[in-house]
């Protein structure tokens, strides 16, 4: 019971981060029918920019609200710009070319970012060594949220087996309960992720821009006939997805404390799987797929073995694709003549 | 020079297409098409499958870039300008195949037609006007557009195009695949829309219907205009009757 609860909490925390990344995959796929394989790496860049921002702010800003907000904002702006650049100069020129061309380009950008960040670039500017890229070694992410226990749950412990009980020993009341700690950063990151997802939901389904986005996603030629500036909608979609990835990167860094340049490749792949499980192109599907995948992984780690984690994740994908090729919430589109 | 039947009423020009050529790779779809639409006109473009009717509309609305020739709207050169910039200049194009967004509701489709407008009151007023034209759209406004019947989708496509308050409406095969009764309804509304001051450039396979509505019509054959005239004169022409009216 206690174990299960702990796994559910961990799974949800992981799932919301997957979800933020999966949303970027699914939105870009929606408007461009392109799997943007560089998306996970944008998330990694987001974590590094957050790292740099926290570093520049210095110890004084750590643990303060405005410090944390600033770290997020800098990272969001930087990644938004990065997303715009990638779309404008890598994908847009290829839009009318065969889809494979853009896909290979996406993989190329992913490699450029993940391997590029393994370089150590420390030029001397005005006699001072300035680190532009920190190199391949894992870095410890600064504690922009000072860890504190949010609540501690006392869950009844399973009764020990009778032969393990030493009748002579005095009964220790502490053994009757297992402590489950929910940390403040877990709650904060959960709330941030939920707020972002809720905001996106409103944006996509309740605003004029969201309508335009969905129109472009269905048929960008017809969307243009209605006066919708298709290029701008696509660029904004990229920027939006990248901003979500930046937040995911920082939330991941807070949770895992270590960041390294290949982080985006691993997490990006999982988030992509989550988006496909949920039904690629479907916003709610991405969130559902991400949470389902993370819970599934967490339960495997908890009750089987962590070496099965990835096998189960991809096995889950295969099962879903066999039973529901369009994903959990994906829709098969039937055209009416 | 194409053969001309009947005399055209002189109206101030709205759309002028001059010597437009369009290529799809090695295939030349349009070989120097020239036509005009005057203010308040309904102009029909008839011809066989593959004659270049849809390509002509696409070249006008910016979906295709002409390789030669010019397109003018209200005296302004718009040749090769991207489609999304032309809506603001008063052009609306209800494309071939209707192009409705099946995953959006009927209302959302209509609202997208008014994408460039910000006059909330005017948009609400036009929405009422569309529901007046086609009451079934009001009943189905919260439904996904993909669940509509073919005829209702065509009504939606026309209404959505009208939501931008165009001066010129381009219509591609509005009768395609529809029951005769539905087609009658749609053409009755088109007449009404035209009477309210919207000029129409209409592509139709159903030459009878098109010529009955049109003030002026062009006959397109393998990418070039071979004949033009008033709707009535073309309806009376033996050549047209044989080739396009199946008589």
In short:
The complex is a heterodimer of chains A (337) and B (247). With 337 residues, chain A is mainly alpha-helical.
What does this structure look like?
- The complex is a heterodimer of chains A (337) and B (247).
- With 337 residues, chain A is mainly alpha-helical.
- Chain A has 11 helices and 8 strands.
- Chain A has a two-stranded antiparallel sheet. In chain A, strands 2-3 form a two-stranded antiparallel ribbon. A two-stranded antiparallel sheet of chain A has the order 5-8.
- In chain A, strand 2 and strand 3 form a beta hairpin.
- In chain A, helix 9 runs parallel beside helix 11.
- The radius of gyration of chain A is 22 Å and the shape is globular.
- In chain A, 43% of the residues are buried.
- The two termini of chain B are 26 Å apart.
- Chain B is built from 10 helices and 11 strands.
- In chain B, the strands form 2 sheets. A 7-stranded mixed sheet of chain B has the order 1-11-10-4-9-8-7, with helices on both faces. In chain B, strands 3-2-5-6 form a 4-stranded antiparallel sheet, with helices on one face.
- Chain B has 247 residues and is α/β, with parallel strands linked by helices.
- Chain B folds into 2 domains: 138 residues, Rossmann fold (3-Layer(aba) Sandwich); 69 residues, no CATH class.
- The model of chain B has no long low-confidence stretch (mean pLDDT 93).
- In chain B, helix 3 runs parallel beside helix 6.
- The chains are: A mainly alpha (337), B alpha/beta (247).
